[in-house]
Structure formats: C-alpha cells, structure tokens
TrEMBL record:
Listed InterPro entries: OMP_efflux, TolC-like
Protein name per its UniProtKB record: Transporter
Subcellular location: Cell outer membrane
Keyword Membrane: yes
Main location: membrane
One Pfam assignment: OEP
Top-level taxon in the UniProt lineage: Bacteria
Keywords: Cell outer membrane, Membrane, Transmembrane, Transmembrane beta strand, Transport
Protein's organism: Polaribacter sejongensis
Family named by the database record: Belongs to the outer membrane factor (OMF) (TC 1.B.17) family.
Length: 445
C-alpha cells in the first residue's frame, strides 16, 4: 500500500513539473521558434546542402578515375569464312573461328577535363546558389519572427481583455447584490433585479468566449513557435509597454531580404544564360587507360600459357577535342529563353522596389494613426471610468436610474476594449514598420 502511495505522489509531482508555467518574453518566443520551427530548420538544411552542391560542381574539374573488369564465356565461337588465296589455297574457302572460349580483363581509366567553359560557370553558379540559400534563410527567419511577434501580441491583448471582463463581472455582481438588497427591502423593482441578472449572464458568456479565444490564440502562437501545445506560458506585463517610435525617411530597400533574394536570383539566371552560351565553346579533355586481358580455352583466372591461357596488356593516352558546329538552333533557342527569364525577373525587381516603398509608407502612416488613436482611446477610457464612478455613486444615493448605470458600465467596457484594441493595432503597426525597414532581427538583439 505504501509503495502505491509513493508511486502516486511521484506521478503527481511529475505532472506538476510538466505543467510548470513558462515565463515567455517576446525575445524568448522568437529564439525558441528559430530553434524549433520546421521552416527555420529546413532553411538551415538548404544552406548546408548548398555546400555539397559546390563540392559536386567542383568534382567536374577534378580527375575522374574508375576501374572496370569483365569475364566472358563463349560457348560457340563465331565462324568466319575466308578466301583461301590469303593462305596459299586459291579457289578454296576456309572456315575459321576467331577468339577463345574464355576471356577476362581488368583495367583503369582516367579522364581529365582540360577546358570546358560550363564547368567554371557551374562552379560559380553553385557558390551563388549557396549565397541564395543564405539570403533565403534570413528571409525565413524574418517570416518566423513576424508571425511569432504578431501572435504573441494578440495573445497578450486577449488576456488583457479577459482581465477586463473578469473585473467587469465583479463590479456588475456587486451592483446586482446592491439591487437585490434594495429589492428585498422594497426599494427596487423586480425588473431591475432581473435586468442585472441578465447583464451578469451576458458578461459570463462573454468571459467564456474570451477564455476560448485566448486558448485558441495561445495554441496558434505555440504552433508558430514549434512548441508543444500543452506547454503553459505566461507573458510578462512589460512586453506590452508602448515606446516612442522614431520615424525617419532614410529607407534603404537594398537591405531587405526580399530584394536581395530577387537580385541573387537574377544573378543565377545570368549564370544560367552563360552556361547555355558555353555550349557554343569547344571542349578539350585528356583520357588514359591501362588494361590487362587474359584469353584461353580454360577459365583464365589462376591459369597461364601452360594451360593454353595467354595474358597481355595494353594502354592508351589521348586528347579529345569536341567542337560544336550545328545543333539545329537548339542552343540559340535556349539562350533566348534564358534571356526572357532575365528580363522577367528584372520586372520583378522593379515591382518589389515599389512594393517595399508601399510597405514602408503604409507602415509609417499606420503607426502615426495608431499613436493618435491610442491617445484618444486612453483619454476616452479615463473619462468613461469617471462617468461610471459618478453615476454609480448617484445610483446608490437614488439620484440616477438603473438604465443610466447599465449604460455607463457598457460605455466603460467598450472604452476598455477599444483601448486594448488600439494597443494591439499599435504593436502590430510597430512590427510592420520594423519589417519595412529590414530590422526584424533587432527584436532578438
């Protein structure tokens, strides 16, 4: 029995430890996502793979050496008919069988490209491809950072909204209790108490909806972080502080990953065009081989001339020159296609430059409007709070109606929700502004 109790407490302790709440700052969330999210991991693997692509391209410029071997058995040798004049037997035909029943050989072959323009271009293209994947890795990181930051702030706002709903429920419950006491003492009507109960029921329903929204948004954040869904997280208050944003006009579009990626693609397409043009160039290579062959009426392995098996060797060294003359205009057509692709991506570059300008302009406009809205909503919430306190005091003194009190409560709740929504809009606009300046990495510095 004691063992069972001990095991129970151990399992309970493990469960409590597993449910330990993790304090999660925005920086922590982003770093966790960059280390665990599959998109970030895959982009790193592409960079790693580009190293092997360079090695593959370099291998074409290095000597290629391989060995070969063969064993052949000829059950029936082919007979060739020869004019007897060649053997001093004019007017006759001689049937002769050439070759041996058994033959085996082994050799080694070396080839070395001496001049092939496509090899050098291919090596440069492989290095450029590595640079492309490095930029793509940076772009992927920025996309992960943006998604995590947006969802992080949305979780916080929903949690703040839940706090507001809970406070509103407590306040309304206190008022309901006052109305209930008045009703029991004959100072209030039953309809007033019913209205308060309906109001509490509506707020309770709203609270449950917000709780559900918080859970869904937290799950979404954990997904974008690559975190286990059942992990408990806590977002500290200071992460939502509003800091002044300095707006400048010194936008540098050339440091944006989207732009750099397109320029690197343009460079790759230029190398692809050069690689196709290289098909017009001649190629020169060196080849050498050495072979050892054995033939006889018996299996040559382990046999010699005493067994009617004869061994010999041969080798050769040569230069191979290949000069393209006519390919049916195939190469020229491929060059034209590559040129069209180059012109197309140049248009993409121009369009991206305009898009980056648009993003920055919209982000600055949004941040300016968000600052104004935030200030207005903050003042509006303070005013609604003051009105609610005054009407609540007047209601207790019998100087205000229940309708006035409920309207004031609804106005204050609306003002609170508008203020938290304004904070979220500001933080999301701040993320877009940081992104438009190409500075998302500053969120983890």
């Amino acid at each position: 029995m004691n063992k069972i109790i001990i095991i129970f407490f151990l399992l309970f302790a493990i469960k409590i430890e597993a449910q330990e709440i993790k304090l999660l700052t925005l920086k922590d969330a982003i770093i966790y996502a960059l280390d665990n999210k599959s998109e970030a991991k895959k982009s790193k693997l592409k960079v790693e793979n580009s190293t092997y692509q360079i090695q593959e391209a370099r291998s074409r410029a290095l000597p290629q050496i391989f060995a070969n071997g063969s064993l052949t058995y000829n059950p029936v040798l082919q007979t060739t008919v020869i004019d007897g004049d060649y053997f001093g037997q004019p007017g006759t035909m001689i049937e002769a069988s050439f070759g041996q029943k058994w033959s085996t050989g082994a050799g080694i072959i070396l080839t070395q490209n001496l001049f092939d323009q496509s090899i050098f271009i291919g090596l440069k293209a492989a290095k450029t491809t590595r640079e492309f994947y490095q930029i793509n890795d940076q772009l992927t990181k920025e996309q992960v950072i943006e998604r995590v930051a947006n969802n992080y702030y949305q979780v916080y706002v929903l949690r703040q909204r839940l706090i507001l709903v809970e406070n509103n429920l407590k306040t309304t419950t206190k008022v309901r209790d006052i109305v209930k006491g008045q009703f029991e003492n004959g100072l209030a009507k039953k309809i007033d108490l019913d209205r308060m109960n309906v109001n509490i029921s509506n707020i309770s329903t709203q609270k449950q909806q917000v709780i559900n929204a918080v859970q869904l948004q937290e799950n979404t954040l954990k997904f974008y972080m690559g975190m286990q869904i059942d992990t408990q997280i806590n977002i500290p208050e200071f992460e939502f502080e509003i800091k002044p944003t300095v707006l400048t006009n010194d936008l540098n579009k050339t440091n944006r990953s989207e732009y750099l990626l397109l320029k690197k693609q343009e460079e790759l397409l230029g190398l692809q065009k050069k690689s196709i043009i290289s098909e017009f160039y001649p190629t020169l290579s060196l080849s050498a081989n050495y072979n050892y062959i054995g033939q006889g009426s018996e299996l040559p392995w382990g046999a010699n001339s005493d067994d009617d098996v004869y061994w010999s060797n041969f080798s050769s060294i040569g230069l191979n020159l290949k000069i393209p003359i006519f390919s049916g205009f195939r190469t020229r057509a491929k060059v034209k296609q590559a040129d069209v692709q180059l012109r197309s991506i140049k248009e993409d570059v121009k369009n991206t430059q305009l898009l980056l300008d648009l993003e920055y302009k919209n982000a600055t406009t949004q941040i300016e409007n968000s600052v104004i809205t935030l200030q207005n909503q903050k003042e509006n919430m303070a005013l609604a709070d003051e009105i609610l306190k005054n009407i609540n005091n007047n209601y207790v003194l019998g100087l205000a109606s229940l309708t006035d009190l409920l309207d004031a409560e609804n106005a204050y709740t609306t003002a609170q929700n508008n203020y938290t929504a304004a904070i979220l809009d500001y933080k999301l606009a701040e993320i877009q502004l940081i992104k438009s300046k190409g500075e998302l990495n500053t969120l983890i510095n």
